Amino acid sequence: MPLAVLALAVGAFGIGTTEFVVTGLLPEVAGEFGVSIPTAGLIATWYALGVLVGAPVLAIAGARVSRKRLLMLMMVLFTLGNAIAALAPSFGVLLAGRVIAALAHGVFFGVGSMVAATLVRPERRASAIALMFTGLTLANVLGVPAGTLLGQRVSWRLTFALVAVIGVVALVGLAALVPAGTGDGPGVGGRPGTAGGVRRELVALRDPQVLLAMAITVLGFGGVFAAITYVAPMMTDAAGYAESSVTWLLVLFGVGLVAGNLVGGRLADRALMPLLYGSLAALALTLAAFTVTAHDRLAAAVTLTLVGAFGFATVAPLQKRILDHAAQAPTLASAMNIGAFNLGNAIAAWLGGLVLSAGGGPATPNAVGAAMALAALGLAVLAAGLERRRPARAAVAADGPRQPAAR
Question: Rounded to 5 degrees, what angle do the CA atoms 177, 56, 188 make?
Answer without folding.
Answer: 45
